[in-house]
Amino acid sequence: MTKEVVLVYPPYGDLVTEAEGILEPLALTYIAGYLKKYDIPVSVIDITPENISLEEFAEIIKKKNPKIVGIYANVPLVMKAVKVAEAVKAVGKDIKVVVGGHQATALARESLEAFSCFDVMVIGEGEQTMLELVGELEKDLPDPHKINGIAFRENNKVVITPKRALISDLDSIPFPARELINFSNYRPATKAYYSNPFATMITSRGCPYHCVFCAYGKGTCRLRSPQNVIEEIGGLVQKYKIKSILFYDDTLTFDKERLTEICGLIIKNKFNINWTCYSRVNAADFDLLRKMKEAGCRLISYGAESGSQRMLNIMKKGTTIEQIKKAVEFTKKAGIQTSASYVLGIPGETSESINETIEFAKRLNTTYAHFNMVTPWPGTELYEQLLKSGMIAKDIWKQYAQKLGMHIPTVDLDGLTMDELGRVSQRAYKQFYLRPQKIWELARSGASFFKLKSYLLAFKAFLRIRAQ
User: Fold this and answer.
1) Can you spell out the DSSP letters for 246-277?
2) What CATH number is attached to the domain comprising 94?
3) 38-72 pLDDT tens trace
4) Is the pLDDT of residue 191 over 80?
5) Are 405 and 15 in contact (CB under 8 A)?
6) Beta strand 150-154 pairing with 120-122
7) Does residue 138 fall inside a structural domain?
8) Is the pLDDT of residue 415 over 90?
9) Which pLDDT score, from 0 to 100, does residue 403 have?
10) CA triple 172-173-179, angle to 5 deg
11) Rounded Cα distance, 323 and 326, in Å
């Protein structure tokens, strides 16, 4: 009989502020749901929301006695994943540690060379790969060469197997196995803090665009059918009494006809939910926005990225300043709150373009704004450009794996010192949020308990940013 597979999300409590969400580990619950479909026993341990120590975690592993432990890791979490893997190996050195997520996809070879506690890296989507891995590792003489989309060691060398094709039919993937986690442990980010219980969903995978700083787009986007999406929403409402949903798609509005149908079905089924989503400014259609509002959409987060058209072009964003203005205008007119994110510090950035972005954000006056110093993530076009030009070191990703090691200046810019760049985000937040107009606007809209709580948490987070 196949032993239980244990899937783990590493601890991350010291990397988030109170204003940030504690989101359900969809990557793991999707894999768990897929394994359950094939009658493989599986459990999910989310260390931070479950509030367990590594010592307590090790005791759980000792009792479960698994043959395989799967760990999620993006770059900022990799050192946390190492601690988890070391705890597993201390319990049983023969337990196979399988690592997935962005760290494994972008840095499979580097990770195996750096961390002896990792045995297998899953590159790309994990559902089919984990199913095949479990079947192979259960054999007396497993042959990992048979499995596409993994990396492993053999004779002290790293072997990377052929790339695995993406899953084309997303409707074929079972819903996340949310029954394996404690729903009360999770909360949305403050800007989406409307009501609980809260859930996270994705209705698509990938993004059709090619922004130089993004590690997830890659020019492909696969969509779930409206009926499949509505079935999951119905289950969330009926089983978990969900009142709020964050749609975590890169661009929920990519296919307007599909989203219009989804909204129509939400309305038809009388799902009394509030929801938020992400979108691109060139995908904002007023008729669609009105339908979204009717279906419960309360806030849309746009990737504005810059107030300089020159910088948008450098980023290969594929949008214009005019499109940003119209998207925000239409969204406000539809009665939906707005959030805009801005990326600062990409080579080509100047003091003038930074000031241009801050002033643009103030004029745009979205409900919320986020100003992030760019991080050249491995696997992005920006990372490869900077690596090739010698502007960053090959192992710079190790800096991002440290506390507060991301969204800090890593690239020298002409005319701007590192100290000046380090203060840019703080200055942008201060100028945007500490305007009398914005203070009054937020105070006036903070009537509900959830929104009042969200603003208090956000203000505490802002003070923490200024103190760094």
Assistant:
1) EE--S-TTSSHHHHHHHHHHHHHTT---EEEE
2) 3.40.50.280
3) 999 999 999 999 999 999 999 999 999 999 999 99
4) no
5) no
6) antiparallel
7) yes
8) no
9) 54
10) 140
11) 5
Please state the length of the chain. Answer: 468
Query: What is the 3-state composition of the chain as percent helix, strand, coil, each rounded to the nearest 5?
Result: 45, 20, 35
* Overall number of domains in the chain: 2
Cα dihedral angle (77, 80, 86, 88), rounded to 10 degrees? -80
Under a CB-based contact definition with an 8 Å cutoff, are residues 83 and 9 in contact?
no
* Same domain for 318 and 237: yes
SS3 per-residue string spanning 340-376: EEEEECCCCCCHHHHHHHHHHHHHHCCCEEEEEECCC
Q: Regarding beta strands 274-279 and 244-247, do their DSSP bridges make them parallel or antiparallel, or are they unpaired?
A: parallel
Asked if 155 and 91 sit in the same domain, the reply is yes
Check pLDDT > 80 for residue 26: yes
User: Does 208 lie in the same domain as 66?
Assistant: no
* CATH code for the domain of 280: 3.80.30.20
Average pLDDT of the segment spanning 306-332: 97
DSSP structural state of residue 161: P
The reply to whether 171 falls in a domain is no
